[in-house]
Amino acid sequence: MSIYSVFYEKLPCRIDVLLPSNQGKVVTCLNPYYMELLKNEAELYNKFDYICSDGMLPIIMNRLFKKDKSIRISFDMTSLAKEVFEYLSTTKQGIYFIGSTENSINKFIKVISTSYPLLNIKGWRNGYIGGTYTDVAQAIVESQADVVVIGMGAPIQDEFAIFLKEYGFNGTIYTCGGFYHQTVERMNYYPDWINKYNLRTLYRLVHERYVWGRLFKYYPGFIVNYSRFLMITKNRDIQQ
């Protein structure tokens, strides 16, 4: 079992299967940077119900190798976050937000409360939980939220998502990476024309300079390793 096989097998083909349900589910997103950084954490990610491709590169590579799972889904306002918030505003299911700094999460709550006044917010807190996993998980369960959104960065957010599920939370859990930080000023981080032409990576390269280091250090390795995985599975499919 490799991180690449886990990622591919848990890719959703449609966004609607990720929306909250009575059965609950645990959903995270990975991009090439995190797959290379966390390549030894396949066992952790195998516990998720779905892993979305947070970026177009894996999707493009899937298409090149004629693999059927080819949809980019991120927890942001261009994709999954928008769908979830609109769905919850209609159903009135409760949501709990955890992540980022105290200042950022408070600003985010003001922004989202204005944008989605019908959203049933059960609670929120910063993402600096240290060794207090149990106390935080208990507080979330007691809030009676149906959905939890966790933004602490990988792998901590993913470890806590699985901990929360195993602790007994029966609702739907999403991880969201830097979504809170990106949404302290406005709901839509990316300009419309950037979304229209799928230039989100280029936008981040200009506005978040640290992304350059990730791109040069980790993306070449991902291209080689994921191509090898796709080639192996393609040959296996042909032989079968």
Query: Biggest β-sheet: count, sense, barrel?
Result: 6 strands, parallel
Major sheet: arrangement of strands:
2-1-6-5-3-4
Q: What is the general shape?
A: globular
What structural class should be given to the helix and strand makeup? alpha/beta
* Radius of gyration from CA coordinates: 18 Å
**DSSP strand tally:** 6
Order of helices and strands: HEHHEHHEHEHEHEHHHH
Distance N to C terminus: 20 Å
Low-confidence region ranges? none
The helicity comes to 40-55%
**Number of helices, where a helix is a run of at least 4 consecutive DSSP H or I residues:** 12
How large is the share of residues in beta strands?
Answer: 5-15%
Summarize model confidence as the mean pLDDT.
Answer: 89
